[in-house]
Amino acid sequence: MLTHLPDCVFNGSFAMKELHLDFNFIRTLPARGFKYTKLERLSIANNRLLKLHSDAFSGIEVTLTNLDLSFNLMAEFSPAIKDLKSLLFLSLKGNYLKKLHKDDLRGCRKSLEILDLSGNCLTRIPSLTLQPLIKLTR
């Protein structure tokens, strides 16, 4: 079982569009850890992620369309997600999120179609967080 991702594991020596790291014990993601991958779909569900480095998805902001971070241990919305411009699907289901801020989904406001926040501890979602999501269907 993986507990972390080494900084240089994805160094551009091979191309991939989809990566599943589900059901491990990953606690953190390195900054720019996926930079050379051109990933479109990334699943890190059912791990031990507490928080993400703000640059965890640097290098794949434009290519990443599906991100599954469900069933982790995150209590705060990660700044790493804010700049994912092509994101269509985001699952944060089953975490410990307590609130969202109005700019948390600003990067994907023109692309996000599916957002799953079920099973969290949300007490507050400002209307300005969801209102700009023009393509959100569920």
List keywords for this structure.
single chain, 138 residues, little secondary structure, five-stranded parallel beta sheet, 3% helix, Vasorin, Leu-rich_rpt_typical-subtyp, repeat, leucine-rich repeat, Leu-rich_rpt
Question: Could you describe the 3D structure shown?
Answer:
Keywords: Leucine-rich repeat, Repeat. InterPro entries: Leu-rich_rpt, Leu-rich_rpt_typical-subtyp, LRR_dom_sf. This is Vasorin. The protein is low in regular secondary structure and 138 residues long. It is built from one helix and five strands. The mean pLDDT is 92. 3% of the residues lie in helices and 11% in strands. The longest helix has 4 residues, at 127-130. The chain has a five-stranded parallel beta sheet with strand order 1-2-3-4-5, with no helix packed on it. The N and C termini lie far apart (33 Å). It has one helix at 127-130; strands at residues 18-20, 41-43, 66-68, 89-91, 114-116. The radius of gyration is 14 Å and the shape is globular.
Structure described in brief:
With 138 residues, the protein is largely without helices or strands.
Structural class: little secondary structure
Report the helical percentage: under 10%
Radius of gyration: 14 Å
- The total count of helices amounts to 1
Q: Which strands sit side by side, in order, in the main sheet?
A: 1-2-3-4-5
Overall form: globular
H/E series: EEEEEH
Query: What is the number of E strands?
Result: 5
Query: How much β-strand is present in the residues?
Result: 5-15%
Q: What value does the average pLDDT take?
A: 92
Our measurement of the CA-to-CA distance between the termini, rounded to an integer number of angstroms, reads: 33 Å
Subunit arrangement of the protein: single chain
Characterize the main sheet. 5 strands, parallel
Low-confidence stretches: none
Keywords: Leucine-rich repeat, Repeat
Organism: Trichonephila inaurata madagascariensis
Protein name: Vasorin
Pfam families: LRR_1 (PF00560), LRR_8 (PF13855)
